[in-house]
Amino acid sequence: MAIKSTVAMMSVVCLLSVAASSHGDLTYESIPLSGFEAVAINKNNQVLGRIRWIDGVPVMGLVWEEGSVTYLGPLSGHNQVFGNAINNTGEVVGHAWTENSEDNTAHGFAWRNGEYSLLGTFGGIQTAAHAINDDGLIVGHSLRGDAWESNAFLWKNGEMTNLGTLGGGGSGAYGINNKGQIVGNSLTAEGDWHAFLWEEGVMTDLGTLGGTRSSANAINDLGQVVGSSNSRGYIWTDGIMTDLGDYMVDAIAVNNMGQVVGYNGGHTILWDAGVAIDLGLGRPTGINDHGWVVGLYDGESVLWRPTVVPLPGAALLGMLGFGYAGMRLRRRTS
What is the DSSP string of 50-67? Predict the structure, then answer.
């Protein structure tokens, strides 16, 4: 059962600072969301979060929406409930640890309309759901049998499908878009972790930026993938991996406008069509299609919100009569 509440420490927000943007008059305000850890944000500006202690429960998920908080509530037989993703209909997925912490058992779950449902396993003791699209398709990873190796899965209509690997011993899925395209990481036959794109039963190796490792964190409805390769952020589009490493060591999320959020040196970076904006201290956890960014700084949640609705960078530059001018970094002015 969901528990609704308006909590004073969470409902009071104040303007911290304004970040100068890369697109003319567009500015970002920084707003603290005290009392919980922000995990993700959907297009309806609902923020998925976690609270560390409430009524003796170590961890509980919640959804914040303009000062109103809905707690996901307890899950029977479990004492730590981690929400990992929220879709645009308000459905939440994650994982929950059982009350017997010594057995290291965790179950993947979906939360819909105040009710939990468990997702099942591949025979092992741990499953976690990491992403959900608007059709309710869920992806994550699950341990196989007694082995401490996991495989990526797709959950659809009550059935879990093993997505396989790139030839190695394990994989995990971390993003899915509304076309059903899935991204994640897999061990290769050579023993290296590589980012993958899974579509219609085929897992494709996205490669690296020249080293041996890469990972994929998210995919938008345009099929653009973001992640990290050898401690350099990237965006992958139509088979081309573009290096964002001059601005971020890891690209965390991408919206349907192609805006990417990542971090570098303790700062949250927003990248849009070759232009990078330093939003200030913190590490991002998500971005929605309005350009709203959520993240964490010093254990507290932060919402970075544009003061005007951003246009896609390339479209805006075209309207202004400019061509692609190369990448540049702009820091906030206050």
Answer: EES-BTTBSBEEEEEETT
CA–CA separation, 174 and 250 (whole Å): 14
- Tens digit of each residue's pLDDT (9 = 90 or more) over 125-159: 999 999 999 999 999 999 998 777 899 999 999 99
Classified as helix, coil or strand, 8 is helix
Long-range contact set of residues 116-122: C-beta below 8 Å, sequence gap at least 24: 116/72, 116/75, 119/155, 119/160, 120/155, 120/160, 121/160, 122/150, 122/151, 122/153, 122/160, 122/162
The CA distance from 278 to 284, in Å, is 12
Can you give the pLDDT at residue 8? 34
Side-chain-side CA neighbours of 169 within 13 Å: the count stands at 7
The Cα 71–Cα 138 span in angstroms is 21
With 0.70 as the threshold, say if the pTM is over it. Answer: yes
Return phi, psi of residue 191, to 5°. 90, 15
Q: How far is CA 122 from the centre of its chain?
A: 24
What is the Cβ-side half-sphere exposure of residue 87, based on CA atoms within 13 angstroms? 24
Q: In residues, how long is the chain? A: 334
Both structure tokens of 117:
């449902």
Q: Which residues pair with 186 in a beta bridge?
A: 171, 194
Task: Copy the structure tokens of residue 300.
Answer: 């507290």
Strands 68-71 and 78-86: unpaired
The residues near 203 (Cβ < 8 Å, ≥ 6 apart) are 163, 164, 165, 166, 186, 196, 197
Neighbours of 218 (CB within 10 A): 26
Q: In this structure, are strands 328-331 and 275-281 parallel, antiparallel, or unpaired? A: parallel
Residue 233, SS3? strand
Contact yes or no for 139/130 (Cβ under 8 A): yes
Residue 8 backbone phi and psi in degrees, to 5: -55, -45
CA pair distance 111, 115, nearest whole angstrom: 5
